[in-house]
Design brief:
about 290 residues, 10 strands
């Protein structure tokens, strides 16, 4: 991976893991198992210039890559992810996981909660709340499968616009905090950011995990996802939220999931995922 700049785990403070997994996804559009490798290719093809035979990385829009010691540990199997995350968190490093389908987030949350023994404030960017309770262990039950690990009232779901009836009930029952794309249009990004800070970040003890399903974006900007849903947020809004959150608090982990290269157009979804990763690196507080 282009920004993997240390040779071993001990030197790193940020650890990248790819999880090419979609075996329990129920999406009709398959291909997220190819997401991690396509993401890495996009870092090489879209986030640098080539001149005089040299690859010259592009700097992030804001922030700095200085002191970001990144190790790409390659791809891991879903069944090994729990142990990998446990080891990373135990050594006080920040895992960034690239999917694969969204069900891998469940594994990460359980591993982190087991190590820290603290509830996680989850900031969840997604078109779907993934709050199905009638079915377990798949990409639509991430939140319900992780209720023991997260502080639902100190978490927030941003970009929601495709909820099943039982999910609407669960959102109300658990008093989950949601922001839909129309809210962002109505109130603006600054007011929405202030709400995220008040609910998720204030007095958080830095136990914050950010999960980014690329289908939170409108499919006009991100066609290469498993379940594209109209009326989504735009890339600049998502990047703004991520940058602002990361400059105001430390996080315990992050993931970017549901990149499905088979349905991408001119690699625009993969290229955005690569740019978003760079902005995350630039803004992370170590």
């Amino acid at each position: 991976m282009l920004y993997s700049n240390v040779a071993n785990f001990k030197e790193s403070n940020i650890v990248l893991l790819g999880v090419p997994y979609e075996s329990i996804s129920k999406a009709s559009r398959k291909g997220t198992s190819n997401g991690p490798n396509q993401f890495r290719k996009a870092l090489f093809t879209s986030e640098n210039f080539e001149r005089a035979g040299k690859i010259i990385p592009i700097c992030p829009i804001k922030g700095s890559l200085y002191n970001k010691k990144v190790l790409d540990m390659g791809n891991v199997r879903r069944e090994n992810l729990y142990d990998q995350i446990t080891n990373i968190i135990s050594k006080s490093k920040i895992p960034i996981v690239i999917g694969g389908d969204h069900s891998i987030t469940t594994t990460s949350l359980h591993a982190i909660n087991n190590v820290t023994e603290k509830k996680i404030n989850l900031i969840y960017f997604d078109a779907h709340p993934d709050f199905v309770t009638s079915t377990k262990d798949y990409y639509g039950s991430v939140v319900s499968d992780s209720l023991d690990c997260i502080d639902i009232k100190r978490s927030m779901f941003i970009g929601l616009r495709a909820c099943e009836e039982e999910e609407v009930f669960n959102i109300g029952h658990y008093e989950a905090n949601i922001i839909n794309p129309i809210d962002i249009q109505e109130f603006g990004v600054k007011k929405v950011l202030n709400k995220i800070i008040e609910i998720c970040i204030k007095n958080s003890d830095n136990n914050i995990y950010i999960s980014i399903d690329l289908d939170c974006l409108d499919p006009a900007f991100a066609p290469g996802v498993s379940v594209p849903t109209p009326c989504g947020i735009n890339p600049l809004e998502l990047t703004f939220f991520i940058q602002q959150i990361l400059t105001k608090t430390k996080i315990i982990g992050c993931d970017i999931v549901e990149l499905s290269p088979s349905f991408d157009i001119n690699n625009i979804t993969a290229n955005f995922a690569a740019r978003l990763f760079k902005e995350i690196l630039g803004s992370l507080i170590i």
